[in-house]
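User: My collaborator sent over this chain with a note saying "see what the structure looks like." That's all I know about it. Can you take a look?
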Amino acid sequence: MHRQPRRFPEVSPFRFDPTRPKKPAALVLALTTPGAMAVNGAGQSIAGTAPSLENKNKMDRISCLPDSILCDILSCLPTKQAVSTSILSRRWRHVWKDLQVFDMDEEQCWKYYDDDEQQHWKYCDDEEQQARFDSFVNAILAQRNADSYPIQKFRLNCGVVSQEPISTWLDAVSGPHLQELYLDIRIYNPAMGAITFPQGVFTCPSLKSLVLKGDININFFDVDVDLPSLKNLKLHCHFANPQELLSGCPALENLELNLQDRCLHLPEIRMPRTLKSLTFVDYSSLCKGIRLREIYTPSLEYLNLSIENLFVDMAIEVSVMNFPNMVEAHLSIVGCAENVGWVVLLLHALSETKLLALKDLATQCIFRAPGFEFPAFHRLLNLELDLPPFNKSFLLNLLHNCHVLDRLVVNICTFCCMESEYNGPTPPTMVPNCVTSHLNSFEYTGYRDTEDDCEFIAYLLQNGLVLKTVTIHFKYKLDQATKDYAVRKLSAIPRGSAICQLIFI
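Assistant: Without extra context I'll predict from the sequence alone. Here is the result:
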């Protein structure tokens, strides 16, 4: 006589989380077709009444789908909600175990209260919260069908008090099938230091997207990085030396690098030549000496560069090449405008871009460049400028080199108290071609009702033959009487375009 093998009772992940929401079955309502209802394990509807045969057929329509489709649906939910469907009926009990996409967030394990007046989450203390979350993640990883369905996408957002659980989880997740990894980790134990990663994370052959945020240590020493398929990388870490990681990503296309540790000395960072998009924030400025940032990326299409330059003897030198495929470029300099001659070279390298934004002190660096002449921007459609001091000659020289400019935004900065003398040439007397033939939109922020302000706006209103909108944002300190006077004065200026609308904000 054939005997059935003995089955041991399973431990539900919710055994470690007894304070779960009272009505997880409501999650299935969002997945069913219109008019369908969800049932619990006893075959009753959510409302508690026994459904008719016709309604049963409607209710079971989603349950009749193959497991692969159900897993695709559950993959769109946070992991805790996906696992909660296991209590709906026998059909759903083991579906979640085949999931290959997991979204683990410690907020999912905060205590939940439901009373007659309100529903709310309780923020627990760090140790209680960490213990609950650790148990939840351990239960999920222990019970899933890891051999048949390896993890492909894994997102983890939590705080930790020790290194051990992170290492255990990452060892379970890492492997040849992992495609996306998102880690946002905070340290709740000040004596712990930064999180150190196991070697396996940086040798996943199929990994295409990697996001590392928080208190993560990626100062590589004896770690061999080999990520041949990695396309997207985001690093927002406090303890980051990314050079070794970047050198092990031969196919990287999109990089977002945020260096916020001001005491970490990074003498050299070389960007991969394969990049198409680069967002680089470098605030590691409290270490003396020149630091090189090399951007030799001929295929680059998007650049967002923000550099902190606090002191003359703590400068950053950015080395660039021409970017013939550039579409959008943003440049911001924070601190001081000394030892930043590379900004002029970068501006020439960006001559093919379609959008250019010069923020904070970037324009002041150009102001101080002796005898500087703008390159010809043959493709530039959108231009955004922060001007520390207003200077009409600077603007006209720039406009003469923007041949097809469609939109101009000028922001008069209030944070900069340093007046800079413009060292460029005297602009031509003729009206720039883009003003008469292409400029459709002009926006002026920080209007102070000075003679310079009014003169330049009048110049564009009179010569902008295709202007559609001119938007004026008043400086916040202007009183109402001054604003009313400015509105009357600017509205009376003759306009070269019959369809131009003047908007005051």
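A starting point for your reply to your collaborator: The longest strand covers residues 209-217.
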